[in-house]
From TrEMBL:
InterPro entries: Asp/Orn_carbamoyltranf_P-bd, Asp/Orn_carbamoylTrfase, Asp/Orn_carbamoylTrfase_sf, Asp_carbamoyltransf, Asp_carbamoyltransf_Asp/Orn-bd. This is Aspartate carbamoyltransferase. It catalyses: carbamoyl phosphate + L-aspartate = N-carbamoyl-L-aspartate + phosphate + H(+). Residues 2-146 form the Aspartate/ornithine carbamoyltransferase carbamoyl-P binding domain. PANTHER family: ASPARTATE CARBAMOYLTRANSFERASE, ORNITHINE CARBAMOYLTRANSFERASE, MITOCHONDRIAL. It comes from Brachybacterium faecium (strain ATCC 43885 / DSM 4810 / JCM 11609 / LMG 19847 / NBRC 14762 / NCIMB 9860 / 6-10). GO terms for cellular component: cytosol.
Length: 320
């Protein structure tokens, strides 16, 4: 891998390889010394144009556990807020010796532009771009799913599993990346959302679409992934009648969770709107793996950085 921009760039073999590496990274959790010397001397820059807590801290923790140096670069308070272009920012990061750049942007395609415009030569990792993709979130979701539902085989996919993804699909980069990755790994995916929150063109995605949550749950899925309703992006409103109506029709209540098969798990990429798209009791229930997803994110992002930096495709194995 030269960059990690889109799930669509990965083959099944590459995706499974990253997940297998993440399993090895997870083994370090049980050691007294969790740090690996793999990326000693490397510098990873977190270039975040959007606010983030989980993703930025997760990438920072992943890089530091691999012994890399980390620079957190926020658009707020930087020269970007004074009108500096993305190109000049990229050139500045390269001049400062960045070995990889993790970029999060509200603009779809920003990571792709950095990777392919020819401004810099470092690996680029997409930490979320607009409503387009969030590939490492999909990888950590797949990692969590496999650990619970396909344990014991580090090279296994998700063949035969049924995952239901519910909520604000229109504004969710997580949903798109998950549909692409989970189906690549052999799972069946069903999207559930109000008609106004289904993206134009979603009918071409490799998944099923329904507007009825109870109908989707009646199919006894192996996992239900709830999406945050991104009201800050709903300029003008009109996506659903009222918050109460949305919660009644699309919220994962205790009663709905009780209809799931005993082995089924509940997921959420966070942050959650408790009591809106998911009941607090469900989020805290034994079948919830929401907190575990956060931990999985560190292992998966360690694996991604390892694949991009531990072996340089141009020069062979990295020398520390």
């Amino acid at each position: 891998m030269r960059h990690f921009i889109s799930i669509g760039d990965l083959s099944r073999e590459e995706a499974v390889s990253v997940l297998a590496t993440a399993e090895h990274m997870a083994e370090t959790q049980s050691r007294s010394l969790r740090k690996l010397p793999t990326l000693v001397g490397a510098t990873v820059v977190n270039l975040f144009f959007e606010d983030s807590t989980r993703t930025r801290i997760s990438f920072e923790a992943a890089a530091k556990r691999l012994s890399a140096d980390v620079i957190n670069f926020s658009a707020k308070g930087s020269s970007l807020s004074k009108g500096e272009s993305l190109k000049d920012t990229a050139l500045t990061l390269q001049a400062m010796g960045a070995d990889a750049v993790v970029v999060r942007s509200g603009s779809s395609g920003a990571a792709h532009l950095l990777a392919h415009a020819g401004w810099i030569d470092q690996p680029i990792v997409n930490a979320g771009d607009g409503a387009h993709e969030h590939p490492t979130q999909a990888m950590l979701d797949a990692f969590t799913l496999r650990r619970h539902l396909r344990p014991g085989d580090a090279r296994a996919g998700l063949d035969g599993l049924h995952v239901v993804i519910v909520g604000d699909v229109l504004h969710s980069r997580v949903a798109r990346s998950n549909v692409l990755l989970l189906t690549l790994l052999g799972a069946r995916v069903t999207l559930v959302a109000p008609p106004a929150l289904v993206p134009v063109g979603a009918s071409a995605w490799p998944c099923e679409i329904t507007y009825d949550l109870d109908e989707a749950l009646a199919a006894a899925p192996d996992a239900v992934m709830m999406l945050r309703v991104q009201r800050e992006r709903m300029v003008g409103g009109g996506f659903f009648p009222t918050a109460g109506e949305y919660s009644r029709r699309y919220g994962l209540t205790v009663a709905r969770a009780d209809t799931l098969p005993e082995h089924a798990i509940v997921m959420h990429p966070g942050p959650m709107n408790r009591g809106f798209e998911i009941a607090g009791a469900v989020a805290d229930s034994p079948r919830s793996v929401i907190v575990e997803q956060v931990a999985s994110g560190v292992f998966v992002r360690m694996a991604v950085l390892y694949h991009l930096l531990a072996t340089d495709v141009r020069e062979g194995p990295r020398e520390n």
